[in-house]
Amino acid sequence: MDCKAKLKLAFSLTIAVAISIIFVAEIQKQRKQRKRRSLSCYLNAETPPKPQQNFKRVIADNSYSQFKHLKLQDAPSSGEYVNVHPYKVEIGELLKNQNAEFVELFDGKIEMNDDEYVWVKTESQLEELAEILSKEKVFAVDTEQHSLRSFLGFTALIQISTKNKDYLVDAIALHDVMGILRPVFANPHILKVFHGADNDVLWLQRDFHIYVVNLFDTAKACDVLSKPQKSLAYLLETYCGIAKNKLLQREDWRQRPLPVEMMQYARIDAHYLLYIAYCLASELKHLPRENSSCLDDKLHFVLEASRRSNTTCLQLYTKEIEAYPGESAAASIISRNVNNQGSFQLTFNDKFPDLVRRLCAWRDIMARVHDESLRYVLSEQAITALAAKVPETEMDIYDAISTADLNSDTTNVSSFLQSPSPVVCSHFEDIHLLFQENIGEIDDLFYSILQNHLGSNGSCPLSKHNYALLSKTSLKLPNRLVSISKPNGFGPGKQVARKASRDLFVQKFSCKSPVYHNCRIYANDGRLLCYCDRKKLEWYLNRDLAKLVEDDPPAIMLLFEPKGRPEDEGNDFYIQSKRNICVGCGEGDHYLRYRIIPSCYRIHFPEHLKSHRSHDIVLLCVDCHEIAHAAAEKYKRQTATEYGIPLYIRKVIDSHQVQNATESSTDVNFEEVGVSPLQLRTAAMALLRHGPRMPANRREELTQIIAKYYGGRQITNEDLERALLVGMSPQERRRHEKKRGQALRNSRKCTQIEESSQANGVEICNKQAHGKNSVQIDIDVSSSSVANGEMPSADSNELNPDVDKVLKDDCIPISDPDLSESGKPMNRTTRTVQCSGNGNVSSSHDTKYSLLGHGPHGKQVVDYLLKEYGEDGIRQFCQRWRQVFVEALHPRFLPAGWDIMHSGRRDFGDFSVYNPANKVFTESQEREKSEDLA
């Protein structure tokens, strides 16, 4: 074969190989495409597509960024406008300059003509409606929402009724142009009538940047009138004789066209509101009021209903942003199931908490990506079952989910959903990956999953709702501090250090799970009794005292007749749902419980006055908590001055020092002896931990502080131990003894106060107190009294703020906390010490107070109020504290029904341990038993 033939053959072979390679590559590409199509997201094939996928303008997306409110042209240019109500000034004017002229706007018409309604579905019709409403003085509004197939939910229908006609606005078809109605709703000269507007005003802000100004809420009018119920169904039946089908509220309001019965249901909601408002306003005007000699007094309750309604307008919509996706849900599931509070029992492994967090985070991300509700993606029962069983195969995962959903015993709409959900079925590989042990950084895993779904080659459709999730910084909010150096190279600045300190505080002390579960308890006649947490709900179910009637959120119906109803006690606060956000600023990322009435006072209230403490426990973010706490501490000092009852114990001295001083001199100057409790504790702790390593001058300085407590004598390590215990709280003492290997029974040893006044005089001298020549002081010489860092209190029965002071200084002598002079533990004795100017002592019952706390201050104040003013004095005292809280924070997100004038009155059932009759009976039984033993 010649050379030319060889070249020709080689060329032919090269062409053939190239064609083969291209052909194989094309086959592989087609296989990958077929595989990708087989794993395609269910949304790509869903028919018809979800209506929100056609929205061109979405104000509240599913990202982890905060919601941005409407910015008016004259608003400040800085970014602070995000959390400022754009119509705050207008609403403030309505609250400041109230008038009752609006009641004349209501009409007494009740007829409903089937032909007089308009279905608004085009932009031109919406503009025409806006023109009509701008000429009205009052109109009624209601909304219908859809939340099952949407992460944040969206408004599907808006019902608007004037005196002449009803309008049903298709908020799905007109979603992008609903801003046409914004000027009408924001007009302060047009009254808008809602029922239960707390959520409606937020939903309108979320979807359309529509803000309601000038509102009359018929639910708030029911509050003022103390109606037995305030539901719209109750008002329709009472005033209009119309029975409302509540089940239609749960229907799918996305469907078009709407069935006739749903159309009629929607019309009824708004049509009769104007007439109901007319009836309620008439009752408010005629509600009797003392000293109603002038017009303003006669219209007091009308104005109060208006004020409460317009306060609702000041609320701002916020997205509940968590420190990490699904964190609060995971914390709730872990807490509920580890404490055996779940709906069914499972055996939990060591990996359970970590797997729950992974599954909750994945569910949160998937719900945002696909714009679905959390319960649609994966139920909490399914998460619990998966984390407990740790399935290995696809079939095991499917079986665990379907079995858990089947056993949930729910009557709610989610029980009819596909299980496992389409999200799980089309993205099974994600869940399977979560159960692998060596998956690396969980943050990187979730970001990788997110990229696979929404990236350039992602399997899931990209929409206005989820496009912002592609930013990695929006996925996680790291808690660790990033080192930022100053230009001069001297390390982090003060702002960075302050932020790190704040973040650490938030991480350590903020609530780790939702505080309000908003579970409901109904009476056997269907009337709402209260909202509660899951633990209380499970208590009734586990004892077969109730049956489950709803699942998300859970609701039960009692199988017995309860003692009373909320309306009997005037406590409407307890039949309101509550949001897990700061009541001051609306922060939902973190919050702490805050006690409006300080515990140092409330613990001494009579049981029937402090049992309703949840009214005065609110949620505050760290910043608002700091403001409220500062105001509370300031008012405590004012209270101490007002009643002449000192806030703190200023000095402590050893009892032997008092004995020696009184023997050597008849005129002891207590101002020259004693040391503050905090100083004593700090010095003793420092010397015990770091004494040998301290500089000599610092060690000598701290030694002198301890010596001053012991009268200047030479001190030993045993003296340091006793001095440290004097300043410790009971919890700190127990931790202290555990570290040293002491048995728990020894932690209850008593602080010794000898029977002889020569060896053990206990004296309290108050430099600032006002009282008579003798002040009664209650002392507990029990086995856990002064030894636990607790001190006796002064009984306020003899306190009189108008009498001159006779006591010298806040000096409290303390004896050896463990042993008597004989070296043996002392028995429990109870005595009263009477303290006067000359230091004499005498006895009473036992009470315990911490040296480092407020000592006897709280009990003395409460006792004084009860003696001088009775229970009314306690109620007024609580109202003053609530006023201090409101003036300090100006809270905008307090739960509905919260009131400064809340009475806190409580009637207890026949079997309640707090029932006074039962309490007296129990105490008499204990006395008889002790007498028999004696």
UniProtKB/TrEMBL annotation:
It comes from the Eukaryota. This is Uncharacterized protein.
